[in-house]
Amino acid sequence: MRRTLAPRPGIALALSLSLAATLGVLLTPGLAAAAPPPTAVVLTPGTTYSTSTDTQAQSITIPIPEGLTPHQVTGTLVFDNDASGSVQILAHHEVVATVKKDASVTSAPVTIPVSERDVSDGAIAIQIRYLAGSLTDPKLSCVQSNNGNVQLTDVKVNASGTAQAPTTLASFFGAGITAVSIVVPSADSAALQAAGLSTEAAMVHRYNSADVTVTTPDDASRAAAVTPAEGRIVKLVSGSGQVRTSIEETGGVPTLTLTGDPDRLADAGAALGSDSLVLGDTATATQLAQSGVPSGRTSETLSDLGQPAPALQGLGESDFAVTVKQSDFGASVREMKVHLVGRYAELPSSLQAVLSYSWNGQLIGSQVLTNDSTAIDKTFTVPATQLAFSNNLQVQLNAVPSGGTGGSAFGCGGPLDYLPIKVTFDGKASTVSAERGQSTDPGFARFPQTLGNVLTTAFGAQATPDDLTNAGGVLQALQQLNSDQLSINLVSASQLIDTSASGLLVGATSKQVDDLQAPLRMDEFRSIDQQDVHFGVGVTDPFAAFQAFHQNGRDLLMLSSWSPSEADQASGRQLQSALVDDLVTAKGNWYGLSGDLIVRQSTDGENVSLDSNSVVPQAAKVHHLATYVWWIIAFVGLLLLLLLAQWISGRRLRKRARLLVDAQQEADAQAEVQAAAEAQAEADRAVPGHTTDPGHVSDPRHPHRAPEQDKPGDGSDD
Known about the structure:
The protein is built from 9 helices and 36 strands. It has 718 residues and is α+β, with helices and mostly antiparallel strands.
């Protein structure tokens, strides 16, 4: 953690006045003199707070560890538009700081004085109110949009005191934890691998924006940096029997140790993400376990999605937005229905207003507000063509005066002679419902919703400590986007290849990549061209690849690397680690991934997101296709042989048939002659006095003609 020094009072005052002159930052009277005392602890919550243009203050809470007394909160206000306006910071419903901006200001520092009285339930409660210029200046009410957002980033809390170490399981995971280091004794045991990953899923589920790692004592270089005030260590130790817990300190950092049968450690680690952990009111507990898979819901309320009581008001434009992820429903979604319930105040005759409803920037409905009914009850269907894996539902109010006393063409200017409009929505009655199915193309966009709250994980070979940490890094990126805690199902690589489950394969071998028919095979490839950008990869240099692809009805994530020789394999594995570290550093940036492939060529370079279809040429792919070509040639050859054999066999059959026909015809002719002779003999016997020389056969063609006799003297005249 970086340590910062608190400015001395005189320097702080001069700096504040300088910023006020250059950026328009004006602190409320009296605050400049109330400089905070020197501080011993600087907290970095690591959270970005945001609010939209509204006259209603939006509450935020900043966790403070027990035992520390806060003195001031510092941060940077970042604006998303070029409108003029101001930001008010309130504590106890009193304005304690104000930042004014004009069109040229995109960001400004802010210092918020706080004290022990501002701490409630372990957190500082303050409010932020962002007022666009059109809300306070009637001359701008119609020509300038009220629409805008402000973010409070780089938040730091200057505090004094000593953070109290937790003494019970219930208090161990308090608010304000920014880093958790999970330590397993070995990366060789499948049971310990599963336990480490289950614990990581639990910790990321509990602390979504924290830095969470799983490492071994032999390789702690990639472990999360933990501090006594904002860090925690969880150790998993092999033992026997039921899992037992104990609390101690490691270098001043609170440490929770889970000891027990390795096969039971995974369920114990999963239990650390449960809200029911508050039942553990002692340091030592037994039979700690959580099993099962959370069932995905088919409907979420706006309150569940982070908008418990959305409201719109004022002239010009004002809006609110809700993020709707497919993973909120525990599965892939092919259609959604939005049902919004609300109410608005009756419109005075001097106002006109319309509500517009958009999904991912596309208009899905609108309504003109009238006094016929002040109730809002709208239902919209969002088809698959408009669905993404993370979606934005936006409700926008446009209100303008229908007339005014200033003589403006827009009905603006002059004194305010109209009442501002206000629209509120019921966060619990308004819902988003989902119909499960598939709506996104194969690639990173299908994760994590395609997992169904179960991450089936496998290692390509014997898992190394880096492989375990890499699996934990990918798990962290997925868990940050999943509403429910992911359940870990650790299997062998062969099981993952042979089953139909979606999942993650870390450290895949070249053969496993081929067996799964991944888009990018682990072999040399030359270049990747995308529009005007040419990305080259040397054919002799190692590279790492992270792929998301569809195979046999399921979706897979695969981390692997290629090296030209055995000696370079270590370089390839280092590239895998660098790729995952960058993926985790960009917290929540999974939604920024495109295509289905990430390539890393050097440890000091950057990840490059690609579409595997743009990779050309690729020797392994050509070789793979060549194999199919030889099979096709063999098949065609076999088919020709079968046709030739059939032709020869048919020729022989035809010859035999002709011989049979000739023999049959000859037999039939002989039978006819014999039958005629017998008929003639029968006729001769029927004539009275006629005898037939048994040795003489009459001519069947002339049955009544006697055979000719030699004439006397023919050829015998003397």
